[in-house]
């Protein structure tokens, strides 16, 4: 877990029974199963490990200067909890940074996405693989609990906003899309006030989120 200091809300704590108020953002690599299979087959397991190490490191780096952000690694993605006064705006800003990184990625992140060996049918050809991400944003309370594993004690998180953010990410069929729940949308309007740009950037949408069909906003 990586945590940045919250200079605006220092000293503020919610009741342990109520949990803490956050904006949850989940971002993951789209098509990661196919990517890791391709890279492992053509370049080796260490190359696949390097790709995910660089991707996750970049995801963490992008949030380092945002106050009150807490990063948890989740497989091929990241869960980020924002707690600042403008926490939904912070989440939206993070998605812009992530998209910019993906559009102009460091070479070590994408150099294994094409084959350059001499023993396989796709040698030297462009592949259909590309680096793509999806994000989901929700707002709500999060509670913490500890679980004893075989080696140590780990902290886990629970809250519907975490689950909904992850489901929103998975519900977006297109790459480089961001889904935002209606409660995060309302919070964003509270932070921004009346801003016509929000209605231009975010469009109403709907999809199957968990067991329910939900309305949300997509950008």
From TrEMBL:
PROSITE patterns in alphabetical order: GUANYLATE_CYCLASE_2 (PS50125)
Composition-biased stretches (Basic and acidic residues): 1-16
Matches recorded under InterPro entries: A/G_cyclase, Nucleotide_cyclase
Domain Guanylate cyclase: 23-169
Gene3D superfamilies: Nucleotide cyclase (3.30.70.1230)
Chain positions covered by the region annotation Disordered: 1-20
The protein, known as: Guanylate cyclase domain-containing protein
Organism the protein comes from: Nocardiopsis coralli
